[in-house]
Amino acid sequence: MISQDTITYALGIIALLNVVAMVWNSIKKPQVKSELNDAVFDVRFSSLEKLVTEMKLNDLHELKGLMNAHIVNQNTYEREMSDKYARLDENIKFLINKK
Q1: Which of 14, 20, 19, 17 is nearest to 6 (CA)?
Q2: Share of the chain above pLDDT 70, in %
């Protein structure tokens, strides 16, 4: 038959193993969770970095296109205004000479 002391020692050993297991889990699980969070952060950060780079390149090309269109429009406007001022100058000279 199993004595009460043997049962007490067995329960004490089981309790001690349970405490060791709890301490191990409290140390190991946060470390695993932290490593998982770090991996997720690295993936998100790299995808965000890629997105920012793509946006920068796309916006830069778009801005160059808009700037070129603005320059073309400005040049056209300046030519039109130059022609109008030249005609206005001719008309003023004609009116002055007519008097």
Answers
A1: 14
A2: 99
